[in-house]
Amino acid sequence: SYIVVVDREGQEHRLDALNGWRIMEIIRDHELPIKGECGGCCSCATCHVYVDDDWRARLPQREDEEDEMLDEAFGVEDNSRLSCQILFSEDLEGLRVYLAPEGA
Ligand code: FES
């Protein structure tokens, strides 16, 4: 299984993904520049990504906690998500996300 991550220079990376892993962990374990400072407990917003339009509707909705954290993030768009709040499963085979700019 895999996901596709586009880094801040526009370079695409195809990353191996395992069921049940957080998207943030998959990105971090492949040594792409994502901080994930809080370790995935939805309290830092340094795992911010933009989800490709084709995928937005296929992801589970944001929980309130994620919404609140995104309120404080930098460069938030309609397709913003915290990647630690998305667990990989086979339904997400080929998921495409873009790393968001690092916060100011
Ligand atoms: Fe901190 Fe996602 S890793 S909110």
Lay out the secondary structure.
Blueprint: E1 2-6, E2 12-16, H1 23-29, E3 48-51, H2 53-56, H3 64-71, E4 80-82, E5 96-99
Parallel strand pairs: 1-5
Antiparallel strand pairs: 1-2, 3-4, 3-5
This protein binds FE2/S2 (inorganic) cluster.
Name the CATH architecture: Roll
Proportion of residues in β-strands: 15-25%
Strand order of the largest sheet: 2-1-5-3-4
* Run of helices and strands: EEHEHHEE
Low-confidence stretches: none
CATH topology: Ubiquitin-like (UB roll)
Helix content: 10-25%
- What is the C-level CATH assignment? Alpha Beta
**Name of the CATH homologous superfamily:** Beta-grasp domain
Intertermini distance: 34 Å
Give the names of the bound compounds: FE2/S2 (inorganic) cluster
Can you walk through the features of this model?
The chain is of the alpha+beta class and 104 residues long. The protein has a single domain (2-99), classed as Beta-grasp domain (Ubiquitin-like (UB roll), Roll), CATH 3.10.20.30. It has helices spanning 23-29, 53-56, 64-71, and strands at residues 2-6, 12-16, 48-51, 80-82, 96-99. A 5-stranded mixed sheet has the order 2-1-5-3-4. A hairpin with a 5-residue loop joins strand 1 (2-6) and strand 2 (12-16). The longest helix is centred in the middle third of the chain and has 8 residues, at 64-71. The model has no long low-confidence stretch (mean pLDDT 96). FE2/S2 (inorganic) cluster binds next to loops. This is 2Fe-2S iron-sulfur cluster-binding protein. Keywords: 2Fe-2S, Iron, Iron-sulfur, Metal-binding. It holds the Pfam family Fer2.
